[in-house]
Amino acid sequence: MREAVVSTAHALVSTVRERAVRPPDRSFMTTAPWRDPALPAAARVDDLLSRMTLEEKTAQLYGVWVGASTDGDGVAPHQHDMAVEHDWEELITRGLGQLTRSFGTAPVDPALGAQALARAQRRITEAGRFGIPAIAHEECLAGFTAWQATAYPVPLAWGATWDPPLVEEMARRIGDDLRAAGVHQGLAPVLDVVRDPRWGRVEETIGEDPYLVGTVGTAYVRGLESAGVVATLKHFAGYASSAGARNLAPVRAGTREFADITLPPFEMALREGGARSVMAAYTETDGVPASADPELLTRLLREEWGFTGTVVSDYFGIGFLHTLHRVAGTPAEAAHAALEAGIDVELPSLKCYGDPLVDAVRSGEIPEDLVDRAARRILLQKCELGLLDPDWTPEPAASVDLDSTGNRILARRLAEESVVLLDNPDGLLPLAPDTRIAVVGPRAADALAMLGCYSFPSHVLTHHPDVPTGIEIPTVLDALRTELPDAKVTFAPGCDVTDPDTAGFEEAIARTADADVCVAVLGDRAGLFGRGTSGEGCDATDLALPGAQGELLDALVATGVPVVLVLLTGRPYALGRWDGRLGAVVQAFFPGEEGGPAVAGVLSGRVNPSGRLPVSVPRVPGGQPWTYLQPPLGLAGEVSNLDPTPLYPFGHGRSYTTFAWEDFTGGERTEIGTDGSYDLSVTVRNTGDREGAEIVQLYLHDPVASVTRPDVRLIGYQRMELAPGAASRLTFRFHTDLSAFTDRSGRRVVEPGALELRLAASSTDVRHTAHLTLTGPVRVTGGDRRLRCEAEVSGAG
């Protein structure tokens, strides 16, 4: 196995092998102002641009994907027909903007990969007149997508923690690993808000609420940027609202839905997180592809929000303007549309921004100042990263350990906090330490059941079946045996994830009949483009459990033995069919390499579950799409026989301890101005006999507005960890900016009238309500409006 990995690394190294060439004349660079780190970055870049040829400027506008396959299945849409062959040695004489996925294309030993990347950078700097290295980028959605790198829980699991500081710590560690390997830019986080849970990429999102997505996503951005790595927000914008939940399908969202649900997480991550890059979405909205939309990528992003970083295409997104969207007749026309809209960098390789762009500029079809605008932004970013400095070196860190002990400890903590106890009606959990347990289900003994589609084993290793996973991933079965050494644990898979065959039911039923309790571990298999039940291009027709898993669960329940359902999934599935028939229900969203021990810890009681749902769990498979952000006619009512009310609502989750919410201040109706603020407080006390965490959620209800509004929406939350008997005082500092919405004219306004602020344990479990009346004129908010509700925790007094 080791030989296969080493040979792959040598193949990549040989692609960029050093060879004896005459270096370009650089005598002019000795005193060039752009080489002086003491000068302002803008002055340095202006000087550099003035010296560059058109070919050298356009070379900064694209990446090169070394080792990408041009045939068979790939890791990006249409990879097989969009990849471009090129002469590496000739190409880099012009310079190069980006290097694409040096680690995420094939299984490469991290140390050898870092050396190969350094060698590629040396060749790039030696071959071009200016000696400017490329920006190396990688995927890092749930950890550095590289062989032997830590596989953290997926973003939907981050949302389930409701713990932004922990997510920030994870992102900082991911950034440190990227930097150690020589990578400058990470293609994360995903800030799409779930609009239809059938969409395959739900696992990559943080949840169905823009405030939760924005706060958790912004924490990830802060962590990655603090490590010196450029965070890339994706997918800008509307990608998750595709019609019918089909990947890349047209988006038919209205302007107010777009403004109030789709865009806020991006604005927060830019304004508060400091993200330095944005990725344009594949999709079109109302007939206009995002990659050709100057209203989105220039007027809103740059002129209104003040963004000064780089906009990159999603992989082949510019070429898709020609081949898929058909709003451009040639690659050159696609390049023109994208440049004019505001896309600076073509990823993953040169299709449109290479020779087609150069030829079109030469012929006068495309203004050269569009090239200059993009090149200037890219070079400014390279200057920020130190890549224009004379003392820059490509040499990697002395050692590259991408799955350190510290990483694994953090991955375990994230996984433990993300597990959601949906139901435990009779206290079946925690399991007795010496009980007889039948573990059943296709996800119980499969390590890949823990991982999402952008983990390296699921994303890349499926193409390299002889290469080991490179990291230790305990299964739920193995972890449960370790967790409960005195228990008698038996196992039967019962069925496959997707195969309808029920031949394995007999053994599973027999194992269950001989046990005191059955732990049924069901769920998804992550994959790409139809090779899984969850992941990019793996969209679902409905929200029934895949394959024969629902039938298996029916058969297990019919034995009369109590069944604990454990779900390892990338999306929520409809569970109403088993409501009231299960001993307990545990939900984990692809919890990463330490997910097995985390789930087993919840089952044994070592871990007190504290996760809360970032997405609603439906009662029935149909009646979708639905999220909790519904105006009155989106809720259950007499106008339709279909009831979309979820079985478990957004924000729901149970614990092994209990909490009391006491001494609430804010019960009387209060008047404040439309530019005012209001504090509401509550004391949260742990009334149980063990340590636990409560998630206090603040929702806004707007009874009457000039346009229909969601019945409730999240505007604040706070995770509170309390020892038995301990209490803390929580104060939310509400500002009326948080009640703003987009009116009929497209302005974001605060309107006078009644409001309710609801302190709740979920979107439906309201504990206390504050009644406000906003007085004064309608107020139009600006770019300085408050985006979050600050919370303060103090002693209970």
Automatic annotation (TrEMBL):
Pfam families: Fn3-like (PF14310), Glyco_hydro_3 (PF00933), Glyco_hydro_3_C (PF01915). It comes from the Bacteria. PANTHER family: BETA-GLUCOSIDASE. This is Beta-glucosidase. Residues 694-763 form the Fibronectin type III-like domain. InterPro entries: Cellulose_deg_GH3, Fn3-like, GH, Glyco_hydro_3_AS, Glyco_hydro_3_C, Glyco_hydro_3_C_sf, Glyco_hydro_3_N, Glyco_hydro_3_N_sf. The keyword Hydrolase applies. Belongs to the glycosyl hydrolase 3 family. Keywords: Carbohydrate metabolism, Glycosidase, Hydrolase.
